[in-house]
Amino acid sequence: MQQQISVITLGVSDLARSRRFYVEGFGWRPVFENAEIIFYQMNGFVLGTWLETALAADTERERLSRPGAFSLAHNAPSREDVQPTMNRLLQFGGHLLKSPVEPPHGGFSGYVCDPDEHAWEIAWNPFWAIDPQGHVTFGT
């Protein structure tokens, strides 16, 4: 089986509030949206933000747990981009989880959660190359 992820879908309680965080905070453009879901074309996969009630119904779960035992990451092209990116996300509905620090393995990173408590690591890692299309390569 091919090693890939096609779509990551996050359950959100308020689609407009979530849209503000991703569109105005990250600066991302939706490729599709309706009253229940917004899709963002990423570099090699699609990120969806879907109303929790609709996601729960689609998965046939009575309720969705939050926050989950996972984090997502946005790798910045330079150390100097980490704090301004976090500041912008905080301005548009994010909440600070951890101010940026220099971890023992190198780099610079901190955590912001979106309005629905999905954790986002905002990081710069000198050992992870980012190509012009935004693809990250591990350990280069």
Q: Mind telling me which CATH architecture this is?
A: Roll
Helical proportion, percent range = 10-25%
Q: Which sequence of strands runs across the widest sheet?
A: 1-4-3-2
SSE class: alpha+beta
Distance between the termini: 25 Å
CATH superfamily: 2,3-Dihydroxybiphenyl 1,2-Dioxygenase, domain 1
Number of H/I helices:
3
Outline type: globular
| Average pLDDT taken over every residue | 94
Q: Could you name the CATH topology?
A: 2,3-Dihydroxybiphenyl 1,2-Dioxygenase, domain 1
Structure summary, number of beta strands: 10
As residue ranges, the low-confidence spans are: none
DSSP strand content = 25-35%
User: How many domains is the backbone divided into?
Assistant: 1
What is the secondary structure topology, with strand pairs?
Layout: E1 7-12, H1 15-26, E2 30-33, E3 37-41, E4 46-51, H2 52-59, E5 72-75, H3 79-91, E6 95-101, E7 108-113, E8 119-124, E9 129-130, E10 136-137
Parallel strand pairs: 1-4, 5-8
Antiparallel strand pairs: 2-3, 3-4, 6-7, 7-8, 9-10
Helix pairs in contact: 1-3
Annotation keywords:
single chain; 140 residues; alpha+beta; 2,3-Dihydroxybiphenyl 1,2-Dioxygenase, domain 1; four-stranded mixed β-sheet
